[in-house]
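Worked Example 4.2. Read the sequence first, then its structure tokens.
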Amino acid sequence: MGIPHRSFRGLVALALTAATAAAGVVCVATSSAANAADTVWAAPTGDQLVDSIGVGTHWDYLDTPYGAAYPSIRRLLVASGVRHVRGDASRAPDLFSSGIKTTVGVDSAMDGSGDPALQIAQLAPLAASGAIAGFEGPNEPDLYWTQGHRVYKGRTFPDAAMEWQKDLYRAAKADSRTAGIPVIGPSLGGTYWGGGNPFPANSLAPYVDWGNFHPYPGGNSFSYPSDYAGISRYYWNADFPSVALDRYPTNFDTYRPPFGLRPMAATETGYSTFRFGQSEKMQGRYVPRIFLENFRLGIRRTFLYELVDSFDDPTGYNREAHFGLLRHDLTPKPAFYALQSLISAVSAPKPSALTKPNPPSPQLTLQVNAPAGYDASGLHHLQFARADGSTVLALWHEISGDDLSPLQSTPQQPIREVYHPCLAVTVSGVDLSAARTTAIGDDGRLVPIPSRAATTGLKVQVGEQVTFVTVP
């Protein structure tokens, strides 16, 4: 078992049966642990999900679109509906004027100089304005501090980074202007699966409000190498968002121990659309699910890496140049529209003075019929209460749409995309005659999808793209 973490799994009463359903619509999806007989206690709000969503930025990369085309990037960022960015504070006042808050990295300079207490003092006036949502400790110091031979208080990594984090936390909590802002721990850039985390267990728990990790999805060899859904050694060669977070929570088991039982933040995660990465179509399918899965598993805030493809790479061979929601020329990828669609689907206009906000959400029941060879527990779901009193049920098949095994070929081959039939889902429990069903299409836009209301409930086909059932 992984280390316990807060979960929103128990939001919908779910009855699972493994029966054969007509393949009908072909869709891509991901796989996960069984989720049987869940009971509703209280549904989170759509605003809570949106508040957990962030994107990474590099405002200090002045020779990239971040610096050269800031007005256009700002306009697209505002249009996305995203409320949080991760980056330096240079654009924080301007972004906050549009309701976007910044999580600021408090790290040493490239030459190893710097003082966390001084940085907090400099940021305090901006923090008092409300523009700062978090202070993040050193970014991947196991890589950058080690490579740069950085020293703090006469110490080297890992002790230097731990001392820095302690001083950062103490300074932030000592100033009334910054004391209420979450302090996030340092992240690690190396892979320490199986042991070797350089930060000892519980060593940073007293000096963070949230722990930190960078759980980029891409295979999980700490799992049973069984075949599933047309992919050999399924978990080893799968890249769905929860591949190393849920059934086999290797990332939690590896990176959470230094933070004890503190909640976690994921300050980087995502997919690169370079030549040997995910296609733009698959990135668009996965991005909404990253945020839904991480929220479902109790991760307080997730920052997708990143907003824009920073570097011009027409050959497609530079992995670091293709993580963006926007291409280098600022044209949106499907993932940009998919994230915009997710935020739109769970958001609603604020209620009027005559409307009772967030009434109790209806208790829904799901019946899942899985095609032969597929596990009905692959259906994942979250139910959200919206500000106008309506309820949104998000459904998706958590199964891998990619087979990573070709990457191990000589010469290396691109990822193989795998297509799966949909799961047949019946939603019941309340009158659903007025319910609307939509899904995020492969272009990232919300589109209506067929559903059929019957005496037994609302019947809908659910695939890899997130499907929404909106109950007025």
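Now turn to a second chain, presented in exactly the same format:
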Amino acid sequence: MKKLILAPLLASFISVAHAGLDEGVAAYNAGNYELALKEFRPLTEQGNARAQYSLGLMYSDGKGVPQDYAQAVSWFRKAAEQGIARAQYNLGVMYSDGQGVPQDYAQAMSWFRKAAEQGEARAQYNLGLMYSDGQGVPQDYAQAVSWFRKAAEQGIARAQYNLGVMYSDGQGVPQDYAQAMSWFRKAAEQGNALAQYNLGVMYEKGRGVPQDYAQVVNWFRKAAEQGNARAQYNLGVMYENGRGVPQDYAQAVNWFRKAAEQGMAQAQYNLGGIYQNGRGVPQDYAQAVGWYRKAAEQGIALAQNNLGRMYENGHGVPQDYAQAVDWYRKAAEQGIALAQNNLGLMYAKGQGVPQNVVVAYALFNLASVDATTKGAANTEVAISKMTPKQVEAGQRLSSEMAKPNNLSKAIATHLTKSK
């Protein structure tokens, strides 16, 4: 669940004049916390709920007093029990985040509900989140939609975005891309980066609107400039492929790098490919290896295969067949036919592993289901060097390799039995 935000203290919050209260609020908003504390403290002792709420906020933020979540909870509770919606909301936040009290989603739900029923929009949004995530209540998408809608209609951008997601995914409501677009747009126009990114996706896929690559670029750019990694990556793809913008590899590199530096694996892989091929940047095998490695370590199978190829050829790293085999194996385990074929070649040539024609054949046979590899041709070459008994063993091994997550185990078992 996303971290929740405390309701602030605003002069507009005060609806009833009270000696000292207006002065305290003015002092707080001016940053004179010492004077604010002096004005609020006597009022809290008289049971003034708004002053109690204000003092809770000062303890929560550590303004004018040492930060003390337990004290914040105490004062929020006093005000909440007198019906102050913002205090109820903030008390819900404290329970949700486990600040000043043990984390307790059921208590958070209770206080959010009290505030939400008074029309507190942030509480309505948080109720929607908790129903959506099943925190403190059984997961209930219909209830999530109901509360997101109440908050969205009050202009809460995150609620508008989440309501768009519910319509897009058909959770709690019938799937409706036009409605999803409508709510994403409302949130996006308020600057919500996730909504801007999703609008770009909707235009790219033609969901709820005609496909429009110029609009895709427009919305991806807005989100990317706010640091959204997926938008940065996708904007890089648009520049790389010349969709919605003139093809521009330098711009593609720029946006892939921004996403890659945030740890986005697919962007790291793409950046590796760009450096390997010298598009938009001078060809640099060392940089290619660096970015492939980052993506490969996050499990991107094609990056693992390409890193294996770099080790096999000694591009950007010293030639190392054992490392090549290791990375080919990781990619082959994930079902990448090209890596299965490459690993088969290593076994056929005895590079990085003991030469073994049966294992090579089994891997070529496994890869041959993908016509873009040379698996089928390599299978025929291997058969020409094998006995009928070896071919039979290779076919059995290939069947074992095809089982989920069993490729390396199958090879190891075969090699052990062959000794």
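Notes for the reader: Confidence is low (pLDDT under 50) at residues 1-5, 8-17. Residues 134 and 353 are 50 Å apart (CA to CA).
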